[in-house]
Design a protein that fits this description.
Low-confidence stretches: none
Strand content: 5-15%
Number of strands: 18
Helix content: 40-55%
Length: about 700
């Protein structure tokens, strides 16, 4: 049993490609080995900015022999009238590599066919690898591949060298002029440009000697432990960031953490103003105390050793100092103008050619947020906060600080509002109206922030649909699906008693009042369907059956908080052991109820004993059902309704509904309609599968 090493040496690969690429390489190699019947113990993949590596442990020397029975043509086609082999049989034998004497006949699906026992001896593994490594490399996909040097191959970045070793033996192959060898390259500045790898076992050691730590997990550990240690030395804590840690892991080959200092004067600015240029622009970790206050230090990672580290520290301090000096200048300049005065400047920023400027969007958000606040009866104080915060929500987009550091939108608005004396709710809502920004992000904590966030996202979605910029297939360039899910999650988190359909209507109405013309009902229906699909997918992801979701949504209910209660309670109730009989009974009710033109029942026209019993049972449970619906106890309400199953079955068994007497027929249909109507106040049981 042996080891195989493939190293693909490249120019620097973007860090964001690395994680998925290593997973893909492992899966592709596993598929290749399995298809070729090559045994192995395990496959590991590694990556640095300049290399992608596959190591296969305990790979067998030979393919497994192939033993299989192969079906050929039918007997009547395989032999002629004189029982001589036909061209079809000769071709089959030749294709399978067997002699005619090795052919036998057996029955298949009632007809005689020829078969061959095929035995293929396994090839040497090194030959299989030689034949397939070029295609394996070409099979690796990247979001934005490139070509270079007139080659046809596409890759993340130009390939400069290839190592292909089976233990100490070079497995030669040619990738459009790039030939495999046993020569690697070390760190671009500290290592050798030509490192001979004698066998797979010495690969990692030889690379480390040349300042390359190939294993990304070891690099990550060095970075994390080193950074934490440096922070602790100053009595602080590393402000950890998994995404930044991952980025640093894949942009260095030989990590050396170091600590630099920040001038105290910069710490007077809001924390985010300092952290953003540190993390987003310089890839530095901030250092905080036990109360999460910033300390005057940063921790960075060098791609190299500790030689001349003092010079490196001074250089990084100088670069960060320049960034923070710019931030300080922008910050002080911005504060010379009240935040509200920036609102007028939003007229200069186009939101969307057909939908106006950011100023226009701000006005729409403000109007919609107030409408929602009134519908929810949130009270004068909350309504006032919503009014003020929505007016200021986009003001910071024209500040110098956000123009330089776009990641600070919302954050700067919040901080400037605080400085100018806006209350805590208004200040926080300016920031929170952007939440959630991505899957798993925080949700607004304030009611004002939640309502403005809903209004902002709904304005974007409704406007997009109105001008036909809606998502299609997998394409969603404006992120409407993410924004819709954000709205749903906010509503559920805040337990808002909000009519989504009404909010959609209000948003579209505001557009029409602002002279954007479209088919109101058509677009409204499209937006409602779009949200219903998001709601369905969300509950399906939570493990709720699709038919239960349809049963609730089919009632026309648009209160997401209430929908969640119903689907969760119905999901439990559906486990009733008599569910099949219940569904059969209520499906009959639903089907026949469509023929009724009224639900007004005349007691005097109830002639048969079974229809009287059904009516009396309906009247008996009706009040209880409505009372439980009012308390959101839908499981109890549906349980009460299903008490009608037995009288329903007896009614259909003994009473003719479609009689010649029109009054009797109308009255019996009205009784069925009444029961159906009561059932639909909870859900539409006819949508639920019996399976």
């Amino acid at each position: 049993m042996r080891k195989y090493l493939l190293e693909i040496g490249t120019e620097e690969i973007p860090y964001r490609f690395m994680k998925n690429t290593l997973i893909q390489m492992k899966e592709n190699m596993k598929e290749l080995l399995d298809e070729n019947r090559i045994d192995y113990e395990k496959i590991d993949t590694y990556g640095t900015p300049r290399r992608l590596v596959v190591v296969i442990e305990d790979i067998s020397d030979l393919q497994l022999d192939l033993h299989e029975t192969v079906k050929g043509p039918s007997e009547k086609i395989a032999y002629d009238a004189e029982n001589n082999p036909s061209k079809a049989l000769l071709g089959f034998a030749r294709g399978q590599g067997v002699e005619i004497d090795d052919i036998f006949i057996d029955e298949f699906n009632g007809e005689e066919y020829v078969f061959a026992n095929k035995h293929v001896k396994g090839k040497e593994t090194k030959n299989i690898l030689k034949e397939n490594m070029g295609e394996f490399i070409k099979s690796i996909n990247f979001p934005k591949p490139m070509k270079w040097g007139g080659k046809n191959i596409k890759f993340a970045r130009p390939i400069r060298w290839l190592i292909s070793l089976l233990d100490s033996e070079i497995v030669e192959f040619d990738l459009e002029g790039i030939k495999s060898s046993n020569i690697s390259r070390g760190h671009r500045f500290l290592g050798s440009s030509s490192i001979e790898i004698k066998d797979v076992d010495e690969y990692f050691t030889k690379l480390k000697e040349n300042y390359v730590i190939v294993d990304q997990e070891k690099r990550k550990e060095i970075i994390k432990i080193g950074c934490v240690k440096l922070a602790k030395e100053k009595g602080g804590n590393l402000l950890e960031d998994d995404e930044l840690l991952e980025e640093l892991t894949y942009i260095v080959e030989y990590p050396t953490p170091f600590r630099g200092r920040i001038k105290e004067e910069y710490l007077k600015m809001p924390k985010e103003v300092i952290i953003t240029p540190m993390k987003e622009h310089q890839r530095y970790f901030p250092v905080v105390d036990d109360k999460n206050n910033l300390l005057p230090y940063f921790i960075a990672v060098r791609n190299g050793n500790s030689e001349y580290i003092d010079t490196v520290i001074k250089g990084n301090e100088k670069v960060l100092g320049a960034r923070l000096e710019d931030a300080k200048f922008f910050y002080n300049e911005d504060l010379k103008i009240p935040l509200e005065d920036y609102v007028e400047s939003l007229k200069s920023i186009v939101y969307q050619a057909k939908l106006g400027t950011i100023y226009d969007k701000t006005k729409r958000i403000n109007e919609l947020a107030i409408d929602i606040a009134k519908d929810l009866d949130l009270g004068e104080e909350t309504e006032s906060n919503i009014d003020r915060a929505s007016l200021l929500s986009k003001a910071d987009l024209v500040t110098k600080m956000v123009n330089e550091f776009t990641e600070l939108q919302g954050v700067i608005g919040r901080e400037y509002a605080k400085i100018e004396g806006e209350n805590e709710v208004v200040s926080l809502a300016i920031y929170e109206h952007y939440l959630p920004r991505y899957s798993g992000d925080d949700l607004p904590t304030t009611t004002a922030g939640a309502i403005i966030s809903i209004s902002d996202k709904l304005d974007s979605i409704c406007g997009g649909f109105a001008i036909e910029n809606k998502p299609s297939g997998s394409q969603d360039p404006y992120g409407f699906r993410r924004q819709a899910l954000g709205i749903v999650n906010i509503i559920l988190d805040k337990n808002l008693d909000l009519s989504l359909n009404q909010a959609i209507s209000d948003s579209l109405r505001i557009y029409i009042e602002n002279e954007l013309y479209f088919d109101f009902e058509k677009i409204k229906d499209q937006v409602i369907e779009f949200f219903n699909n998001r709601i369905k997918n969300m509950f399906i992801d939570k493990g709720i059956r699709y038919d239960i979701i349809d049963a609730v949504l089919s009632t026309g209910n648009d209160n997401i908080t209430d929908i969640q209660i119903r689907v969760e309670q119905l999901d439990e109730w559906i486990k009733n052991e008599d569910i099949e009989a219940i569904l059969i009974a209520f499906n009959r009710i639903s089907n026949i109820a469509e023929k009724a033109d009224t639900d007004e029942v005349s007691k005097e026209l109830l002639k048969e004993e079974n229809e009287k019993e059904l009516y009396e049972k309906y009247i008996e449970i009706k009040e209880d059902v409505h009372e439980n619906i009012g308390k959101n106890k839908y499981n109890i309400a549906i349980e009460k309704i299903t008490d009608l199953r037995k009288p329903i079955d007896e009614f259909f068994e003994n009473v003719m509904v479609m009689v010649d007497d029109e009054d009797l027929k109308r009255n019996r249909l009205a009784l069925i309609k009444s029961i159906s109507k009561m059932m639909l106040e909870v859900c539409d049981l006819s949508k639920i599968s019996k399976e």
